[in-house]
Amino acid sequence: MTVSKHSVQSGDVRLNVITRGDPANTPMVLVHGYPDNHSVWDEVGSRLAQTYYVIAYDVRGAGQSDIPPRIRDYRLPQLSEDLKAVVDALIPGRRFHLAAHDWGSIQSWESVTTERLQGRILSYSSVSGPCLDHMGFWMRDHLFSTSPGKVIKALRQLLSSWYIVFFQIPVLAPLLWRVAIAALWPTFLRLREGVKEPEANPTQANDGVYGVRLYRANFIGKMARPEQRYAHCPVQLIVPTGDNYVGTQLFSGLSQWVEHLYQRDIDATHWVLLTHAEQMSDWIGSFASAVEHNQESDDMRASRVSPPTDTPLCQQPVQA
User: Fold this and answer.
1) N or C end: fewer C-beta atoms under 10 angstroms in the chain?
2) Over 60: is that where the pLDDT of 180 sits?
3) 8 A C-beta contact, residue 197 and residue 204
4) CA–CA distance, 123 with 48 (Å, rounded to integer)
């Protein structure tokens, strides 16, 4: 299998990009989360590359990509521009499938629900990453509800998201990553997340230190002023039911924002890409194939969340 390295410019930021497979195949772009880099997708990406032209990149501030110095350089519109820069450089004018994990999912919702790449994203598989706008509306609905059950769900999610508040504190979180967390990260993944023999990431300290800027640049604003966001492509949610950080309840009511919505639950923890790579590649690949061929399988039909619609999954034939 051909594996190639590329450098793509997005404004003033240089992005490190890895591609796998035959460029003639339908493209599949993979976006990683925090505190990871593109390598978290290696095993899943290698499997997908048997069928797709797989593109994975280090988001700004991670891996071997540039590290912008200002917090505002990590806002969602800039992150969406990075995705556009990658696909414009490597697959100009072509349509592609998108899959993302954790913060990669959060930032990819920006591209899936705005005009920047409308018409080019064929399908979106989101793993453990809600849209911040949808999450903002969900939190408002639950925190200020007269239903005690809703309020309890919101409070539980806030407790699970304690680290987001911690990340808002300047200096402290980056300092802890430097002096302690980075070295302990493989042990944490093994003991807390069930990841067997995780390989050491040579850029782990920087990935943790600078990735904090993603949270500081976006969370408070989106929770205070969420915007209506409607997806312009079919969406598959892959939800690890043992996720210690992203509660499954955050995806309730999402069908009001997504016309073609499917959900697959899996008994796994947050780093499901590392613990269940074969299952992840199968679900992402089969969903992409079904969308391409406008053919909803029985398995997909069983995972449908939104009501049936006459609108086809794929608006136009896919061309390589």
Assistant:
1) N
2) yes
3) no
4) 15
CA-CA distance, 227 to 108, in Å (whole number)? 15
Angle between helices 148-160 and 132-143 (to 10 degrees): 130
pLDDT tens-digit map of 56-111: 999 999 999 999 999 999 999 999 999 999 999 999 999 999 999 999 999 999 99
Sign of CA pseudo-dihedral 105, 272, 305, 224: negative
Superfamily name and number for 3-303? Alpha/Beta hydrolase fold, catalytic domain (3.40.50.1820)
Helix axes 103-112, 204-224, angle to 10 degrees: 50
Residue position matching structure tokens 């995806």 = 251
Torsion over CA of 218, 127, 299 and 261, rounded to 10 degrees? 0
133 touches 57 (CB < 8 A)? no
Mean pLDDT of 172-178: 89
- CA–CA gap between residue 61 and residue 74 (Å, rounded): 8
Strand order in the sheet with 27-31: 3-10, 13-20, 53-57, 27-31, 96-101, 121-127, 235-240, 261-266
- Distance in angstroms (rounded) separating the CA atoms of residues 265 and 198: 24
Q: What confidence tens digit (pLDDT) does each residue in 240-261 have?
A: 999 988 878 888 889 999 999 9
Q: How far apart are CA 275 and CA 127, in angstroms?
A: 13
